Amino acid sequence: ETYITATFKNDAEIQRQIFDIFLEEMGPVKDLPGALPALVMQPISKNVIAHFSKNGGNALGLADTEGPLLLVNLAFMWSNATDDDRIYAATSKTIQRSIDAAKKLGVDNRYIYQNYAAKGQDVFAGYGEANRQRLIEISKKYDPKGVFQKLQPGYFKLGRF
C-alpha cells in the first residue's frame, strides 16, 4: 500500500480537475491484481486552521487566511510487488499533475500532511522555512544528541543540524 498527498485551496474547479486526472492516470493500473486506488478529499476549514495556533504556535505554518483548504490523499493497495514501479509512477504523476493544475488556477498550497506523504515528499518544507528552523532549534535544545533523529528508523526527519 502507498500514500501520496498534496494540499490545495478548496475550490470546485480544482476538485473536478483532480478527479479527472485521477481517472486518467489510474486507468492503466486499475485492473492490476488486487488494485484498489482511492482518491480521498478532506476539507480543512478556517476554524480548524485557527485552532492549530490555540496553544502557543503553529509549527505547520498554516494561517486561517489560507483556508479553507483541501487535503488530497491518494491511497493505493495492490497485490504483486512486480507492479510496484508502475503504481508508484501512476500515483506520483497523479499528484504532480494535480499540483500543476492547481498552480495554473492559483489554488496551490505548500503544506504536505505527514501521515499521507510519500517517501520522496519534503514534509518539513511544507511547514515553511521559519517553522522548519524553529523545529530544528527545539530539537537541538531538547535532543542535543539527535537521538530521535538517529534511532527512529524510516519516515521523515528534520534533517542534519
Note the quaternary state here.
single chain
Total DSSP E strands: 4
Largest sheet: 4 strands, antiparallel
Low-confidence segments: none
Structural class: alpha+beta
Distance between the termini: 32 Å
Average pLDDT rating: 91
Order of helices and strands: EHEHEHEHH
Percent of residues in β-strands: 15-25%
What does the radius of gyration come to?
17 Å
Shape summary: flat
| Helix fraction bin | 25-40%
Going across the biggest sheet, name each strand in turn: 2-3-1-4
Number of H- or I-type helical stretches? 5
Structural notes for this entry:
By secondary structure, the protein is an alpha+beta fold. It is 39% helix and 17% strand. It is built from 5 helices and 4 strands, in the order E-H-E-H-E-H-E-H-H. It has helices at residues 12-26, 46-52, 84-105, 129-142, 147-150; strands spanning 2-9, 36-44, 69-77, 108-109. A 4-stranded antiparallel beta sheet has the order 2-3-1-4. It is flat and about 50 Å long. The model has no long low-confidence stretch (mean pLDDT 91).
Structural topology:
Blueprint: E1 2-9, H1 12-26, E2 36-44, H2 46-52, E3 69-77, H3 84-105, E4 108-109, H4 129-142, H5 147-150
Helix pairs in contact: 1-3
Keywords:
161 residues, alpha+beta, four-stranded antiparallel beta sheet, 4 strands, flat
Briefly, what is this?
Helix content is 39%, strand content 17%.
